[in-house]
Specification:
The chain is mostly helical. The protein contains nine helices and no strands.
Length: about 140
């Protein structure tokens, strides 16, 4: 894919969609996605993390979501918010469990949304539990 065509394609594309392109079969598209993420401010550490957290294999994402709170040089809350929308319920469950101790308004709003809307009953229950605990403090 040539640069003008890729630039046209990525206009309005979310960072999450670009991260998923890092695993595409087309090496050129993955390279352009990496360049676009860099232009959007992703550091080398964040690019390596994005490759793992957008891996098509949910087992990889499940493993890496647990590492987020202890990682230096990243905003773990931003990544946990993103992973709270993951297609795999185990990844979502781990992300919301790790988000539970925050007072960040965006995360609290996300927990409330998950408590009301997630298709997995465990995630709805855990989100409701965390939301209630945080509101009682």
């Amino acid at each position: 894919m040539d640069k003008p065509r890729f630039e046209q394609m990525v206009q309005g594309t979310s960072a999450g969609e670009l991260m998923r392109l890092l695993h595409g079969a087309d090496v050129a598209t993955a390279s352009w996605a990496r360049k676009e993420l860099t232009s959007r401010g992703f550091s080398n550490v964040e690019l390596r993390l994005a490759e793992r957290l957008a891996d098509p294999d949910p087992r990889v994402r499940r493993r890496w979501v647990r590492y987020l709170p202890g990682m230096r040089g990243i905003d773990a809350q931003k990544w946990l918010l993103w992973l709270s929308r993951d297609s795999d319920s185990e990844v979502r469950l781990t992300a919301i469990t790790l988000m539970a101790s925050t007072t960040n308004r965006e995360i609290l709003d996300r927990l409330a949304t998950l408590a009301a809307d997630d298709q997995d009953a465990r995630i709805r229950a855990r989100s409701e539990e965390h939301t209630s605990e945080l509101q009682s403090h």
